[in-house]
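Illustration: Prepilin-type N-terminal cleavage/methylation domain-containing protein.
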Amino acid sequence: MKPHHHQPGSHRARRSGFTLTETLITATIVSSALLTVIGLFSTGLNIGRDSTQTTAASLLARRIAEEAALAITTAPIDVPLTGTGTYTSSLTPIESDPGATSNPTQAAYIANWQTNDDSGNPDSPLAPGVQLLVVTVESPASVPAANRKIYRYATLVQKSQAPPPP
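Result:
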């Protein structure tokens, strides 16, 4: 029997390419990296959406507070005031958008505001004629109340001592 001799370099030529194990390990690493990147995109989108909702809720609360403060300054001194409204995503009241009343999913925000008149309470930290105005904005309006994010905006309003204009 003749001994079998390998020619130099012939073993290397036969072993070109990757093994199945190497391919599976590479596929696992690449898929894990891709899933991580996809998860980061999803998180970034959620943060962006939350930021947009927070900004819109803040703008709506501030606008309502300004309107309510104007109503408070012209109301009689001892009358606490309250209000409520439902608003679209463009921050317009549902009542002023005729198409939105037929589609309840148009409502993006629910806003409530109320004042606290402690003028008759001697232990009140508020100065006489000053009321605490609290605006609460809930979003999104289309989900059950337990699942909504709640934003609160509070400010002090000086009530006018002069009678309201005729």
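Reading the tokens back as a structure: DSSP finds two helices and four strands in the chain.
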